[in-house]
Protein 1
Amino acid sequence: MSVDTKKLTALLQWYKQSLGNELIAALVVNRDGLVMDSLIGSSEKSLNEEIISGVSGLVEPVLTRITEEFSSGSFGTGTFDTEDYRFIFCEAGPEAILVTVLDAIAGVDPVFPYAYLASEKIARIFDGRTVSPVIPKLVSEQDIKQIQRKVDKLQKINIKSGEYAFKLILGGDGAVGKTSMVHRYVENNFATDYKSTIGTSIMKKNCSFEGLESSVRFVIWDLAGQAQFKRVRQSYLANAETGILVYDVTNRISFENVNKNWHSEIKKASPNISLILVGNKIDLENDRVVSTEEGESLAQELKLSYIETSAKTGENINDAFKMLALQIIKKFIVMEDV
Ligand code: GDP
């Protein structure tokens, strides 16, 4: 396959112009993480000559991980944070991925529309279709919304493949037991080292049911320590099909925050998300301050299913994920058959 490399380079130049000083570097990589083209941005950090090799060393493992986790090979868009950088991965057709590298403190919202637009053009270049490398300035809300709609369409999961991969996120105050629940459920805890370097750990787990052909593959995104930063949280919570709202039954504030903060923040980031509510740490019977009835009543108010768990003893952990899987099967898969 021959790719019009001149056009690709021209496009990256336009991309750089659109993003201005925000951009540290942009890379077009193939599915194996091999750099096809790259460009250094105009940010101060870009002055470091070794930026591309440093960054591409980080890109490859993240990419391998995300593409492996999604059975369809398709993940749409993802953002990752390291101590120094923010990465935006945008699929550009079946072969290429546009990786945008920004400063760790840069906002991604203004960048997304341009990244989408550039990715679409890159896909065309790889396909050998005609396309102009010019990236227009997107000024109106309407432009941006139009692109967003296109992307939403692109990101629809391939539900015909018979195996379904769903991004699962966990919301809830710190220390309520989110990571413990995931580890208890996933068992093979291969992602620990990953978490420290990338900031997000991604784990997968299949959930199947006897007598049911459909199985659900959860791609569980667990956010490391930086969950307190709203900016990081927003990209973590976005594009999720499913999620678990967790509170600690021995901590009333964590219970109140489900309703006050977490539920609305998650709904805002992923409006169609399928959620359940979990009260965790029920093994600590003597310390319990939130009753089962209160949990159930909050769930009713939020129109969610409710279950109580202990990540410590393992009680109901599998059932919580099964509950979620069934909810998803009903929503995405059964619907497809009708
Ligand atoms: P996260 O910040 O929500 O991810 O919470 P962690 O999973 O890191 O857990 C916070 C603390 O609570 C850790 O010390 C865990 O060992 C503890 N923990 C988590 N789940 C349970 C549970 O079900 N019972 C008890 N007793 N402790 C738990």
Note: The pocket of guanosine-5'-diphosphate is lined by residues 174-180, 280-281, 283-284, 310-312 (CB under 6 Å).
Protein 2
Amino acid sequence: MSNKKLAVIGLGYVGLPLALLAVKKGYHVVGIDLNHAKVNSINHGESPFTDEKISEDLKNHKIYATTDFRELNDIKIMVICVPTPVYEDYMPNLEPVERAASTLGKFLKKGDLVILESTVNPGVTETFVLPILEKASGLKGGVDFHLSHCPERINPGDSNWDVENIPRVVGSLDEKGLLKTVKFYRNLINGEVRPMTSLKEAEAVKVVENTFRDVNIAFVNELAMSFSKLDIDVVNVIQGASTKPFAFLPHFPGCGVGGHCIPVDPYYLIEYAKQKGFQHNFLALARRINNQMPMFTVQRLIAGLEEEKINILNSNIAVLGLAYKADIGDYRESPALKMIEFLDGFGAIVRTYDPYVLDKSTHKNLEDVLTGVQAVIIATAHSEFKAITPEYIKTKGIKVLVDGRNALDKGNFVEVGINYKGIGR
Ligand code: SAJ
């Protein structure tokens, strides 16, 4: 029985891999989540969401999952890994963090270490989470207990980088807390653990790295919209630019930017700076450009249908993919959902198929979803869709194919007479 105990609050894409890693490293882990179904499946050794690695690890590593925070009474290290989504107006939604902190605070004891992994805008840990913990516990942060921030860097579906080898940054309220937190993560992971000089710096690292990605994607998305008019293949151009071995980092255009990180995190920075009197015009513009892509993609479909003398009204359209990125089942903020909404608005009859999100798909396989449609949009570059051949599309009598992820070889489809529309090509 390990003499190291740890609590992980929030057993999703971030908390569960961390909890499993801690078990592997000899911790006795109590996982706390408010979702009973999730708690039950974990206690039965089953992953609550589609993830091969988690499913495998849960078979061999025991986590005690519960909804009961009283388990915290004899635990000294607690890591908060709850979601931090945004509201419709893209304002940061800190309700899950507030719920977790106010409940956890009731069980806080002298000498405890609380670590927030959830992505928050700079300043939130100290000005929002700390007061909640102090009020609920009657203790003083940085004196009676330690409070740190170590932003999560989970990359769903990535087989090279995982919770064990991804480097981390850590910020803390006080020096001793920083040392304890760095030591904790160095016991867990074999990537670099870099101490930052403050909580705000650690928070800023995460939003900056993801905002960097969002603005780079916006750059190529704007190029795609421009090159569509200039009749230049933007994918070829980006690949050409990638031959430059320095000072160029390729990103690729698509039907939109989904997920719980990239389209969300920039709003944290935009919002926080706005509170302090600075307008991030560039970051906000990048968000607007990326948010335009689902409609741009639907307009590519309408253009294709018009060329084939097909009216979108009452046309049968197949949307392939609901997930926000290839070969995973997560569809949070997915551009596919936005495109479906727009297609409905234009009066199309929409059918969907995603092998990783079957419960939300109208059809359960490629053959069925493509039977009787005039056009198809590829919204996610799942491996199954990348294997679609021009001949197959031809035999299905499909006239227009919109490749929302530039996942297919355009030339092969044009060659057999299919009206192929890419994003920027
Ligand atoms: N996307 C593009 N063009 C690109 C890259 C991505 O349109 O060139 C789209 C994707 O289709 C998706 C969205 O952006 O809809 C986000 O894609 P992503 O590859 O960034 O995937 P995420 O959201 O899982 O991002 C995670 C992030 N990891 C963390 O926040 C810890 C991100 O920092 C990583 O850079 C990213 O994985 C990664 O590199 O794969």
Note: DSSP finds 15 helices and 13 strands in the chain.
Protein 3
Amino acid sequence: MSFLRKLMVTAAFSAAMFVNAAYAENVKIALVVKSLGNGFFDAANKGAEEAAKELGDVDIIYTGPTKATAEAQIEVVNSLIAQKVNAIAISANDADALVPALKKAMERGITVISWDSGVAPEGRQLHLNPSDTGLIGETIIKLAADYLPEGGDVAILSASSTATNQNAWIDAAKKILPEKFPKINLVATVYGDDDSAKSTDEAKGLLKSYPNLKAIIAPTTVGVVAAAQVVTDENLIGKVNVTGLALPSEFKKFIDNGSSQAVALWNPIDLGYSAVYLAYDVAVKKEEAKPGATLSIGRVGKVTLDDTNSAAMAPPFQFDKTNIEKFSKIY
Ligand code: RAM
């Protein structure tokens, strides 16, 4: 066989091998979270695995940094690009800082979506919000106001200061405060970085700086546990009500001991499940992520993208002593 012919046969053979390999291998979808060791994201991963099982040809890579920072997440994204994953579904620690790394991923043919905590539109193909942002903002204030008929001082203990989701909810909360909750006085917003130790210190700091504080609102499942533990340890049950967004399985004991009257959240399992479906719709089914497009999210239903290619799932659900037991067994 001539050298040229040999080369052509080899090339055809490797092309066939490549095509076969592409079909034989499962679709690799990376679920990138703000930080590992957070029960909320572990629950989302449960949903992601459920979706992978239903879809049949998907492998989930559940990953994220140990600390909830954008820098650490950029390293994770770069390593996923090197691993040649098919899709990245990220809950971002910063809306802008991740854009260059995620753009690089998209240039290499990787589908990129954000979920939970968004990335700026140029850094992703679509974004999935757990619920309407304005509604979450109003809910976190209402949760405090419902138990403060006379009004009073409240403070917010958030996640990281660059977290897209918490910042959007806090902005929405501040917007509706004067008109809808005139007796609620927001005295401070502090940041616990979704780190238990830092959140504990920040909660202690709030109680020290604001002795008249009536409620701590933590729109983060990590911060809300830390704050309720501090209120419990400092014998402030009945004086300071802790509320916000909490995972029932982690928070039930604080509803039980009275350090909190009520909290809210959406279903984190459904959120992770839906994020995987959306990544699959774009990466494998080649559905176009464009304003007005309706995409399938399996057993959860369908979502329609708005003019920023974002969609929202269901309204948040409230948990108190009447129902937290039941939900604590699910997530
Ligand atoms: C924490 C994270 C997450 C947020 C929940 C409510 O687990 O900050 O992004 O959605 O709280």
Note: Residues 15 and 21 are 10 Å apart (CA to CA).
Protein 4
Amino acid sequence: MNTDTKRVVVVTGGSRGIGRAIGLRMADAGTKIYLNYSGDSQDAEEAARLIEDTGGTACAIRASVASRQEVQGFFNKIVQECGRVDVLVNNAGITIDGLLVRMKEDDWDRVLAINLKGAFYCMQAVAKTMMKQRSGRIINMASVVGVMGNAGQANYVASKAGLIGLTKTVAKELAPRGITVNAVAPGFIDTSMTADLPEKVKEAMLAQIPLRRIGQPEDVAEAVAFLASEGASYITGQVIHVNGGMYM
Ligand code: NAP
């Protein structure tokens, strides 16, 4: 086992969008970033290269967060390589939208399996390591709709509301070991997840944002970096909203 002295940061869904921005924001000479993804390796390899270009250290690893076995293999590899995990960002997420009356059971299951159960698998896989360290930061990527609700997203909203409850519960369980667990709830952010929304929907969303702009992945990455920093050591069980004022 190589017990590196670098801070070890794991970002699920780190190949593009918000996850990629988090990896880049948290990269520095003293940090090793593990970027997880489940699909094509091209985006993840590019994200890792971008981190290395800034002088950081990064490694892209394929594993679906919806598979307990793959998640366990992913964390076993990290602990074997580094001996520790300092920060876990549960960011991987998908949408399969549809109205309740038409929603297919498979679409409900798939979204819950990745967005909610995936975070459960990752937290369970990393908890013992962090407990032994008596330190660690877990940051779960929720969403503004997890507190507001949103027509056409019953599965996604349920997953994000569930993730907020899970965050608060795990925060209580792990606090005595010096581990903080928080959620970040982005509003409308410019990524591939929102790119295909019809222009009309985008305009309607923008009209609800007092700061009058769509958020950038970097806006969310700032909040995550803060929660992972020394300065946030007394913050746990919270939901930090990054939404331009869309929800107050
Ligand atoms: P995105 O651009 O679609 O990126 C999603 C990431 O998740 C990709 O890296 C994707 O990589 C990965 N992923 C998907 N399924 C996975 C799986 N089974 N296992 C591991 N990784 C998986 O989305 P984003 O907008 O950056 O969203 C990131 C997070 O922010 C999500 O949790 C999302 O719900 C949340 N969020 C986004 C917005 C927004 O407006 N964009 C708002 C609120 C919350 P692969 O395709 O290679 O698997």
Note: Strands lie at 7-11, 31-37, 57-62, 87-90, 136-141, 179-186, 239-242.
